[in-house]
Amino acid sequence: ENPDEVPPGCMPRSIDVVVRNDNVEKARAGDRMVFTGSLIVIPDAAALMGNASKIGGSPDQAQQRRGSAAGRSGNASAAGEGIGGLKALGSRQLTYKLAFLANSVHLAHFQSQADQISTMLQGGSTMEEEEEGETQFTEEELQDIGLMRSDPNLYNNLVKSMAPKVFGHADIKRAILLMLFGGMHKESKEGVKLRGDINVCVVGDPACAKSQFLKYVASFMPRTIYTSGKASSAAGLTASVVKDVETGEFCIEAGALMLADNGICCIDEFDKMDQKDQVAIHEAMEQQTISISKAGIQATLNARTSILAAANPAGGRYDRSKGLKYNVALPPAILSRFDLIHVMIDEP
Asked: Which of 35, 180, 200, 201 lies in the 20 to 30 Å Cα band around 306?
């Protein structure tokens, strides 16, 4: 369930979606998809296995019970006769759960379902365009794009349209605009890859609308994750290895930087993060990969994301008599990975 659509005071709910055949590779972690299908009822294997371990016990415990029963009866051959009743197994109750069997999978395009249905009924987009994730522009939109292209003041107009609720701070709006457009990924002749994503850090006094910039970017940009530094851990930002409930095998659970692949990760209260959690994002900020070697799993995952961070000065207020490295309680390894660092000072 989308966090933006959850009623006040409620927790987001989730349901398992079963995808088969060609639809398996269409959805990636972090995408907002629209699934078309039907509700189905499947046996809850995880609950059945849990009840068996709690009530019936393990096979070794059942063997011990059979051996003790044979000893009490005094019959040596009773141990090989098997189980005389179902009490030794324990009562097992088969439970069911709801799942969703998806027949069609496509991108949500960040519009409501009513708009999507009306667009499909009007024939505004074909199936090939939906599969490729392309959108069809109308004639009016194409004319507006042509006028914008010929406007000599286009760059300044785009800067003014960034976060209109925040007055001033044109330099920070330019930095966020450049971060949204991004740069070019380059690769040298020797095979060295240079990232094209731009990392921006905003340092300033309290109540200077730093979080408003982050909320604005997270409100309309696709594949954008908003998180707080104090409530984030190293595994929550990168990736963690968890044990699957049904199969019992270890699998990788994506973190914030993986979910924001080819997008933007907004981290508020960046200076409140623990030192060990900041070290975890060093590789993701520069090499744009996440390496995992846990529980027999060795993998290198992509984290091609731009980071927009907001931090407070070390003493609560920014001291102009000192340099930036003395005002920010961040290690040099983190500061060197930010391409643009802007300072916001609360003054009349």
From this structure: 35
**Nearest-angstrom CA–CA distance, 16 and 248:** 17
Beta bridge partners of 191: none
CA distances from 43 to 53, 94, 95, 99, 246 (A): 17, 7, 6, 10, 11
274-to-210, 230, 238, 256, 271 alpha-carbon distances in Å: 21, 8, 15, 17, 8
Ramachandran region, residue 236 (left: φ > 0; alpha: ψ -120 to 50; beta: rest): alpha
Q: Is the dihedral of CA 329, 335, 338, 341 positive or negative?
A: positive
Contact call for residues 237 and 280 (beta carbons, < 8 A): yes
Answer for the pair 116, 107: CB distance below 8 angstroms, yes or no: no
Amino acid in position 167: F
Give alpha helix (H) positions in 182-309.
210-220, 234-237, 256-259, 275-279, 282-286
149 pLDDT more than 60: yes
How far apart (Å, rounded) are the C-alpha atoms in residues 330 and 162? 28
At residue 53, the pLDDT reads 46
The answer to whether 204 and 210 have CB atoms below 8 angstroms apart is yes
For 42-109, the three-class secondary structure string (H helix, E strand, C coil) is EECHHHHHHHHHHHHCCHHHHHHHHHHHHHHHCCHHHHHCCCCCCCCCCCCCCCEEEEEEEEEEEECC
Neighbours of 328 (CB within 10 A): 21
pLDDT at res. 60: 55
For residue 226, pLDDT beyond 70: yes
Each residue's pLDDT tens digit, 71-99: 544 454 444 444 454 455 555 566 788 89
Residue whose C-alpha is closest to residue 210's, from 68, 310, 323: 310
Residue 38 pLDDT exceeds 70: yes
- In this predicted model, what pLDDT tens digit does every residue of 281-331 receive, in sequence order? 888 888 888 888 877 778 788 888 888 888 888 877 888 888 888 888 888
Query: Using CA atoms, how far apart are residues 320 and 307, in angstroms rounded to an integer?
Result: 26
Q: How confident is the model at residue 135 (pLDDT cuts 50, 70, 90)?
A: low
In terms of Cα–Cα distance, which of 235, 243, 214, 240 is closest to 294? 240
